Amino acid sequence: MFNEKDVIEQVSALCKEDSSGHSFDHIQRVVNLATDIALLEEADVDLVKLMAYVHDVDDHKLVSSEHEFFSHAQKILNSQNVNEDVIQVIKQEISLLSYRGSGKTTCETLAGQIVQDADRIDAMGAIGIARAFAYGGSKGRRMFGEHPLTSQSHFYQKLIKLYDLLNTESAKRIAYPRHQFLLAYVKQLESELNPNQKARHF
């Protein structure tokens, strides 16, 4: 067990200035989704929640390039007297959790896979669309266009691929309506931006 209120205070303090779609609101949604999936998958709920709370506190999108990986998470977990073996598992899984390149890096434990699923689900659906534009805006990127660094391109590069990368059947059931909404949005966006062109097939 851990003091959830204390963890929330520590994590929210680290993320309170974020406007890139990785604020504490995102972390809390990931915790809630991961908890639901953990219960369905009969996983260790406390481990899943701890990992979900600290999964972004050392992310490169929130910290400087000089920041030491896992240092914030280590401090939070130490404050909860988490066993060192458990801390090392959390550290390993967080290093695998983020979407990179093809997105095919998979966490090794069930707890890690559940948090990875929850994080990916929060990048789908209406919330995922809003977060994509928030992140692009925080980086000064254009919203639309074929250039790989526009927010529109992010849908093709990452977001529409997420459903097929989910690890657990429970996550897939939760994510399916969001995935369908995302596909419909992308098609509608294409039709408005390029009314004379045929929409892509996904």
State the low-pLDDT regions, or none.
none
For this structure, what is the CATH class?
Mainly Alpha
Query: Treating each run of at least 4 consecutive H or I residues as one helix, how many helices?
Result: 9
- The fold-level CATH name is Hypothetical protein af1432
Gyration radius, to the nearest Å? 17 Å
Range of strand content: under 5%
Q: Which structural category fits the helices and strands?
A: mainly alpha
Describe the overall structure:
This protein is an all-alpha fold and 202 residues long. It has a single domain (4-193), classed as Hypothetical protein af1432, CATH 1.10.3210.50. It contains nine helices and no strands. Helix 2 (24-41) packs antiparallel against helix 3, helix 2 (24-41) crosses helix 6 (110-121) and helix 6 (110-121) packs parallel to helix 9 (169-193). The longest helix is centred in the last third of the chain and has 25 residues, at 169-193. The radius of gyration is 17 Å and the shape is globular. The relative contact order is 0.12. The mean pLDDT is 90.
Features:
60% helix, Hypothetical protein af1432, 202 residues, globular, mainly alpha
Present the secondary structure layout.
Elements: H1 4-15, H2 24-41, H3 45-54, H4 71-79, H5 84-97, H6 110-121, H7 125-138, H8 151-157, H9 169-193
Helix pairs in contact: 2-3, 2-6, 3-5, 3-6, 5-6, 6-9, 7-8, 7-9
